[in-house]
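2.7 Reproducibility. Because tokenized structures are sensitive to small changes in the input, we list the exact sequence used for MICOS complex subunit Mic10-like isoform X2, including any N-terminal residues retained from the expression construct. No trimming or masking was applied before prediction.
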Amino acid sequence: MADNKEIIPPHYDLDAKWDACLDLTVRRFVYSSFAGAFGGLLFFRSPQTRWASIAFGAGVGIGSAYTECSRLFDGPPTKLSLTKGSEAPTQNMQDSE
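Resulting structure tokens (single pass, no recycling of outputs):
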């Protein structure tokens, strides 16, 4: 029976990706909230500003986890190329067709 079990390639294993993403999100949320709490206790006296620093830290943690998870699911972002004579990055027109 165990011989018939199909092995899913890591690229398509969504369960492992969701587990990694959930773990990363919880850890970054908690650690950055603690960092915001520590910074709030260190720098601010008002309870409102201390709570604001905790909320800011939590937002930074969730934002960085979202960025990392989207990279995990979608792959790395597309490469932008510089055209000759132009300093602003533009997307190559051949890639979009």
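The helical segments are 14-43, 47-74, 93-96.
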